Amino acid sequence: MITNSKTGRIATLLMLLSLSLVYCKTSRKATASAPEEKVSAVSYTADILPIMERSCTPCHFPETGKKKLLNTYEATKENIVDIVNRIQLPAEEIKFMPFKSKKTPLSAEEIKLFKDWYNQGMAN
Ligand code: HEC
User: How many A from CA of 123 to the centre of ligand 1?
Assistant: First the structure.
């Protein structure tokens, strides 16, 4: 029965650990909103737009944009499937965006943000 008591001890440890994690979280929330509170849903304004302003300008934004405009929430939402496909292509593909890597290509984390945004229903 060594294994059983060992399992029991591990279970107790895990329970204590999760309890302290919950405690840490709630106590932190009570003081000030921590910067890493990005566990919440991905939002267009907070997460998606800044990436597009960095990597999809000027081509898809109004000042000099000659390509399909992707400068608004509506336009991004309408084209999200195409966007998610293109940013994941190999950079040498002609359809890869940002076009010919003229702007900073998206990191794996940023691509994940776009996918999460899509899967979570595309909040503004
Ligand atoms: C240097 C200019 C440039 C940048 C930067 C750029 N694109 Fe493009 N984009 C183009 C060109 C040129 C086309 C048209 C050629 C094509 O369809 O592949 C295009 C086409 C597209 C299309 C298809 C639009 C249609 O006609 O239906 C999408 C979607 C798109 N880009 C998304 C993006 C996204 C998202 C970014 C930023 C991550 C981005 N692009 C950055 C030049 C650019």
Answer: 22
